[in-house]
Design goal:
Number of helices: 22
Bound molecules: 1-deoxynojirimycin
Structural class: alpha/beta
Radius of gyration: 27 Å
CATH class of the domain at 393-580: Alpha Beta
CATH architecture of the domain at 393-580: 3-Layer(aba) Sandwich
Strand content: 15-25%
CATH topology of the domain at 393-580: Rossmann fold
Oligomer: single chain
Helix content: 25-40%
Length: 741
């Protein structure tokens, strides 16, 4: 008597029921425990192994970059792939993992989805200048929807590194210089990317680079970091903390050291802070090769030593270098790493594989139909266009040159304005610049009389003939729109620059165009605040465009014509000169602060340049004007349980409807640790019609007046505070407040 199909199916179901980890109705913890019992040490170690399988986003592995080896997947030797994407391609590999490996553990597919996947949004630094948390969250969820359709489960964003050094190419990836705003933005991006991770349309976020990578010396990529615990707690940690509290599934160890120990193996960072203080329940991934790079740091003698230090120091998944798979089983046998530590890491990784639904519905992320319909859809592009509009910062607008009427005869000058290859930065995932709208295209569509000239060439140098051609075009124009700055590919990882002035060729071009007497609008393209000192006098208006993404030209046309009235405020101060870096609004007073007008001797200052930034944090103009009045509070003394209500009236006193970011700063006048001259504590973005006024109310709690000691304890001390409210960190009204016990 043979088995019938009914018997076979019944038997399979019985076997499956016994395999608790395959039962979708069982609690995740029980499923993980069941699966862990079945796994060999080698299979557990396989879960820690993340291999690169596509575009190189770091140096090639010692044996060269290789395409995925199916047998390694079958053998359970890979837990995750980086840079392997596309619905069909991910599906092909996931099938092997799920259907052909012994336990059928699915793979995680990861990629740097930094500011969009196919539809490219403005770079995160620019997006942050909108101060619009809802929009920032929405932008991240659009990126998630596109990326998950292409099979991805995980993005390496948001970068929560505070940085005050625009020489560092990666400032483009962060939210600027302020820890409070950085935290709110990091959290908004985590919410947008992740949702609740249950619908197959959201990705795991990764808070990076833990910790203090934004403090690299002299802005040099992969460089040394030396910060105190006081700075760590008060300046660098708050954004990571906020993003983790928003539920980020993963964190990435940074390339740098903290207190002389590489972050990857740093027990203070990974255990004391992350695990014990922040109660982080997700898992950590190294940055590219940071395990093996500990040998170059001079912290590990060889691969085995590096691996033991990394895993014992809190390391979990290893990106690219693949030494766990080679040496970890042996290290465990030798007792150099305990099985408990390995199990803890594997459990955390498996948790997210269950949470994403990968055991029950393994192929839902690789969705070719959705990949086709959602990628670069009209609605995604519309959202990206709005994001680009709200990220452009108007730095100067003499005699109300902007906005322009569409019948204005404009000359558009600048090689980058027409060169699509120069539009995008390095971190554009699968964005294709051919599908983006250049400045030239966007502006030509709105200004029928537009004439174009290159003015400089691809490397930003110029020649007499390029200048003469630009002057020729300028002759018949009413207004000259001159696109200056850097090619997009000068922004991002491995793009540190010592010279961040506007290139000399472009300066010369502007100087010659200035002689025509025609009004000039400088359109600055860059992934960082550049030194604009040399060109501020050469342009009547300056619009900091950053790198706006797929909808560049359309958004620029919206802004220049006034269809969108600029409302962005810079989140990073613009230095007067490279020698002034770092320059930031929330500095400490020192024992020798300068006098208000900068005169006198023996003060903390430069003899050749001012102390103040050219354009400080929080600064940005609108086509309209706003008046602030009636700053008041419901108390002048308060205790720890009180809420202090601060009210201010803001009125649109100009000719256009517009939006204003109302900012509130505090200063703690005397404390057990010195406090910055100003700290952002609240803000609200208000929309005001012409002539309209609104009362903005901020409710401050004791928490807003607290800070950290060097062990991360929160301190709230009685004493005097100043409160400032205004439209920029440098243009504020003030009143005094006292905290009593
Ligand atoms: C190195 C970068 O530092 C990190 O941010 C990125 O996520 C990885 N490479 C992967 O591309």
């Amino acid at each position: 008597m043979g088995f019938s199909w009914v018997n076979i199916i019944a038997l399979a179901q019985f076997e499956n029921r016994k395999m608790l980890y395959k039962n979708p109705n069982a609690p995740i913890e029980k499923r993980i425990a069941d699966l862990m019992k079945r796994m060999t040490i080698e299979e557990k170690v396989g879960q820690l192994n993340q291999l690169n399988a596509g575009t190189l986003t770091g140096p090639a592995a010692p044996l060269g970059n290789k395409a995925p080896v199916m047998q390694e997947i079958r053998d359970g030797k890979v837990g995750s792939y980086l840079n392997l994407e596309g619905a069909a391609y991910t599906l092909k590999h996931q099938k092997v993992a799920v259907e052909e490996s012994r336990l059928g553990i699915p793979l995680l597919f990861a990629k740097d989805v930094i500011h969009g996947y196919k539809t490219i949004f403005p770079i995160p630094l620019a997006e942050a200048c909108s101060w619009d948390l809802k929009a920032i969250e929405q932008n991240a969820s659009v990126a998630s929807a596109e990326a998950t359709a292409a099979g991805l489960h995980w993005t390496f964003a948001p970068m929560c590194d505070i940085s005050t050094d625009p020489r560092w190419g990666r400032v483009m990836e962060g939210a600027g210089e302020d820890p409070y705003l950085g935290g709110l933005i990091g959290a908004a991006r985590v919410r947008g990317f992740q949702g609740d991770l249950s619908d197959g349309k959201h990705l795991m976020a990764c808070v990076k680079h833990f910790a203090a990578y934004g403090a690299v010396e002299a802005g040099k990529e992969y460089g040394h970091v030396d910060v105190s615990r006081f700075a760590l707690w008060n300046k660098y940690l708050p954004p990571y903390k906020a993003a983790i509290e928003a539920g980020a599934a993963t964190i990435m160890n940074s390339f740098n050291v903290f207190e002389g120990v590489p972050s990857t193996a740093n027990v203070y960072l990974n255990k004391t802070i992350l695990k014990d203080k922040f109660k982080f329940k997700g898992f950590a991934i190294s940055d590219w090769d940071t395990y093996t790079e500990m040998i170059n740091h001079g912290y590990a003698a060889n691969n085995q030593d590096a691996l033991a230090k990394a895993i014992n120091g809190g390391g979990m998944m290893e990106m690219n270098s693949s030494i766990s798979i080679q040496y970890l089983p042996q290290l465990i046998k030798e007792g150099k790493v305990s099985i408990k530590v390995l199990d803890e890491a594997v459990k955390r990784i498996l948790y997210y594989k269950f949470k994403l639904g990968l055991f029950d519905n393994s192929y839902r992320y690789s969705n070719e139909a959705r990949e086709k319909s959602e990628s670069l859809s009209a609605s995604n592009r519309a959202i990206a266009r709005k994001a680009a509009c709200s990220s452009m910062v108007l730095l100067k607008n003499e005699k109300e040159l902007l906005p322009l009427k569409t019948n204005t005869k404009v000359a558009l000058i600048g090689y980058y304005a027409k060169s699509k290859a120069d539009m995008f930065d390095f971190w554009v995932a699968k964005g294709d610049y051919n599908q983006a709208v250049s400045m030239f295209e966007g502006l030509s569509a709105k200004f029928p009389n537009l004439k174009y000239s290159e003015g400089y060439s691809s490397d930003a140098t110029t020649t007499d003939s390029l200048i003469n051609a630009a002057l020729e075009v300028a002759k018949n124009a009413d207004v000259l729109l001159v696109n200056i700055g850097l090619s997009g590919n000068k922004a991002g990882e491995d793009r540190s620059l010592a010279n961040i002035k506007i290139p000399l060729g472009q300066q010369r071009l502007l100087t010659e165009l200035r002689k025509t007497g025609k009004p000039i609008v400088a359109l600055v393209s860059s992934g960082r605040p550049m030194v604009l000192t040399q060109i501020t006098g050469l342009a009547d208006a300056i619009l900091q465009c950053w790198i706006p993404g797929t909808e560049t030209g359309n958004a620029l046309a919206d802004v220049l014509t006034g269809a969108y009235n600029p409302s962005a405020k810079t989140v990073m101060s613009f230095p007067v000169d490279e020698g002034q870096i770092p320059v930031y609004y929330n500095y400490f007073n020192t024992g020798r602060p300068t006098s208000a007008d900068g005169s006198g001797n023996w003060f903390a200052r430069y003899r050749d340049i001012p102390n103040e930034a050219l354009f400080p944090f929080g600064y940005g103009l609108s086509y309209t004007t706003f008046a602030y009045s009636d700053l008041k509070t419901d108390k002048t003394t308060f205790s720890k349980s009180d809420i202090v209500n601060v009210n201010i009236t803001v009125k649109n006193t100009g000719k256009y409807d517009g939006g204003e970011v109302v900012q509130l700063y505090i200063r703690d006048l005397a404390a057990s640790y010195i406090r910055p001259v100003k700290e952002l504590k609240a803000f609200e973005k208000v929309a005001l019609k012409v002539g309209e006024e609104k009362q903005v109310r901020f409710a401050l709690t004791a928490n807003d007046f607290s800070f950290y000691d060097m062990d991360g304890n929160t301190l709230l001390e009685s004493g005097d505070f100043e409160i400032y409210v205004g439209g920029s960190s440098s243009n504020v009204s003030k009143f005094d407040l006292k905290l009593i016990k």
